[in-house]
Structure prediction request, 298 residues.
Amino acid sequence: MQQVWDWIKDVLLGTGGAVKWTALVVALFMLLEGAPLRGLLHRGYNLLVFALNMIGLAVVGLALDRVEAAMPEHGLIGRLLPGWTPGHPGSWQNVLWATLLYTAVYDFFHYWAHRAQHEFAPLWVLHRVHHNDNNMDASTSVRHSLGAGVVGMVLAHFPTYLILGGGMLPYFGAIILFWVWFFFTHAQLRWSMGWLTAVLVGPQMHRIHHGRSVAYHNRNYAQFFPFYDWLFGTLRMPEQDEWPETGVDGDDQPRWAWQQVFLPWLHPVTPAALPEPVAPAVEVADDSDPAAPTMAGR
Prediction:
């Protein structure tokens, strides 16, 4: 029994630490977004969703960690290239190349895991928690259901681990990719990335993915490289100053954060909010026109 209490204590302390650092990053982005006081309740709600999700993942992790532990330490690449070692020890060049390689492999699997969560209704029920945020900002980055977190682990993290092994991604690279960049791409920053827009996913590119209008449905799934969306036919390059409204028509968030995290299927899904297969891009509806038709954002 003492071991159980010690485990619970460790989970709560770990969650508290993660929420503390996440709140700090959200606060810094809030200053960059030019909203130092607005949206505090909205950001607090998303942080609460994050905290509950962390606790749930700790429980589910008791099983998932066993699966990961059974995987080969150096992955498939270690079998194909005998003597292969992860790139994080040594020079900054090794750190850079190891991070880029991990990012390219992970983003491939992330693309298909993300697309599956939009095109299959049972998975969309889990993923929509991330999208039914009508005021998308940096805090939206950590707004997920427990089920969506498990899907991401199984369909994106595990395959990447099988190919590259567990030691590929340097600690510094993990911070940049899964903290700074994820927050950055969800932030309300009307920054133009110029020619880099076609190379790296930024706030404008990813906001289109969260757009409420039908014109944005099932577009821009990649988290880092738009190349994958171009390759698989889902790329939608943003127009100049294009900054759509976000959210999912007919699917406002439930009142209680625990329902978002643990029981998202209890919140009714309207027909307009169900996912649909990828279709050719259509003209963008003018969000300023009250008569413009809109459907569920993805």
